[in-house]
Write a structure and sequence with these properties.
Elements: E1 2-6, E2 10-11, E3 17-24, E4 33-39, E5 45-52, E6 57-59, E7 67-71, E8 77-82, E9 91-98, E10 106-107, E11 111-115
Parallel strand pairs: 2-11
Antiparallel strand pairs: 1-3, 3-8, 4-5, 4-9, 5-6, 7-8, 9-10, 9-11
Amino acid sequence: VQLQESGPGLVNPSQTLSLTCTVSGESITTNFYWSWIRQSSGKGLEWMGAITYSGSTFYNPSLKSRSSISRDSAKTTMFLQMNSLKPDDTAVYYCATGRVILNPDYWGQGTQVTVSS
């Protein structure tokens, strides 16, 4: 499974972040959890949420009110939207997948998102 994140790089505070994860080698019909995970400088990994092959979604309670995970109908692309961004949301954002929701087997290379005016 290959995963590739893409996104804007720089976002202004209070705006909405939109990230895309392009999947190859498998599709999001596979019975994996398809997750978004982020890591801020000097901090550990933070699991943000996941979507399953059936379209069910799960979120980190601390981010649920600001986050939305979805996939396209072709099930080859996964999306993350996060609103009301703050400088603390600056991080490397990863998409990842695997059979265990909090322990993915496959990771993208990550995309840097900086929240700054």
